[in-house]
Design brief:
Elements lengths: L5 H13 L5 H20 L6 E5 L40 H12 L18 E5 L2 E7 L2 E5 L5 E5 L2 E7 L5 H16 L1
Antiparallel strand pairs: 1-4, 2-3, 3-6, 4-5
Length: about 190
């Protein structure tokens, strides 16, 4: 679980550079120590800590605040990669939005790397794949308050949040069915 964090990715890239000089056993031992230290670090976090995330109001592709949020499909943006041919994913994009995405992707890139232009994306962006929701937030403010009442505020450009959909698991479906059977018998 912790291997997908920034620290885990940094360690993975370092190990990749050292790969010819390490044996498989040494690499396995390094990962074991990393996993144990991450579990220990998380266990040492104060129990009364509180993390809150504040984001600006949702936006549409056309821009604007709360008034721009609409159930009309042309105002919603879903990247082409997110719309897969699965039964549990409902495509939200229309041909107009897909056409805008295709035009943006086919434009030539300048020789100098330009900053990422997200003006054609409606935030927050949602995606579900294999029962895991991924939410991309733009310009969030994260406030961390520890048990002593000290707080720290951080302004981020983007925040990616992954949430597991427990209703998509088979165990959740079975418990719902069992509850329905018990309710019918009563």
């Amino acid at each position: 679980m912790y291997r997908e964090t920034i620290l885990g990715l940094a360690l993975a890239s370092t190990l990749a550079e050292m790969n010819p000089r390490l044996t498989a056993r040494q690499e396995k031992e390094i990962w074991r120590v990393f996993d144990a230290s991450m579990v220990s670090a998380v266990a040492e976090a104060p129990l009364m800590s509180h993390v809150s995330v504040h984001v600006p109001p949702p936006s549409s592709v056309a821009g604007g605040g709360m008034a721009a949020v609409s159930t009309a499909a042309p105002q919603l943006y879903v990247p082409a990669q997110a719309v897969e041919a699965t039964e549990d994913v409902t495509p939200l994009a229309t041909a107009d939005v897909e056409q805008q995405h295709t035009l943006a992707a086919s434009s030539p890139s300048p020789a100098v790397e330009a900053p990422f232009d997200d003006s054609n994306i409606a935030f927050p962006v949602y995606r579900v794949c294999d029962g895991v929701w991924t939410v991309l937030l733009k310009d969030p403010t994260v406030v961390v308050r520890d048990e002593s009442g000290k707080s720290e505020q951080m302004q981020l450009d983007y925040l990616k949040v992954c949430l597991k959909d427990i209703s998509a698991t088979s165990g959740a479906a079975k418990s719902k069915k069992a509850y329905r059977k018990r309710a019918k018998k009563s």
